[in-house]
Amino acid sequence: MKIVEIVTEAKTAFARKGKGISRKYRCTSGSRKGRIVAKPSTCHAPKQIKKSVTMKRTKARLGSSMKVKRRRTMKSNPRSKTIQRLNKGGPRGR
After folding, report:
1. pLDDT given for residue 89 in this prediction
2. Interior/surface letters 16-51, b for 16+ CB within 10 angstroms, e for the rest
3. What is the torsion angle, in degrees rounded to the nearest 10, for the CA atoms of residue 8, residue 11, residue 13 and residue 17?
4. Rounded to a whole number, what is the distance in angstroms from the first to the last CA of the chain?
5. Closest-CA residue to 43 (of 27, 23, 59, 64)
6. What's the distance, CA 89 to chain centroid?
7. How far does CA 20 lie from the centroid of its chain?
8. DSSP H or E stretch at residue 93
9. Would the pTM count as exceeding 0.85?
10. Strand residue runs (E) in 18-79
11. Each residue of 9-63: pLDDT tens digit?
């Protein structure tokens, strides 16, 4: 076990999980900085090269259509609206 795994910095955030909303963590350091992950220890875990290469290929092939679908979901899906509100914080967010 590394010291980084114990003293990892991650803020809580809400995200979709299945058909509901769950609390997850936003990495504030490590190779996954800015990403939302299920466990804070994931922030400093080694990267999985095969998965990253596959995702790069997929984005090169379908990137524009992925963007359009994502934008449509974030504008219309009620769950997405709720998550956006929760992640903003402040008295109205919570």
Report:
1. 78
2. beeeeeeebbbbeebebeeebbeebbbbbeeeeeee
3. 10
4. 35
5. 27
6. 17
7. 15
8. helix 90-93
9. no
10. 20-27, 36-37
11. 789 999 999 889 999 999 999 989 999 999 999 999 999 999 999 999 999 999 9
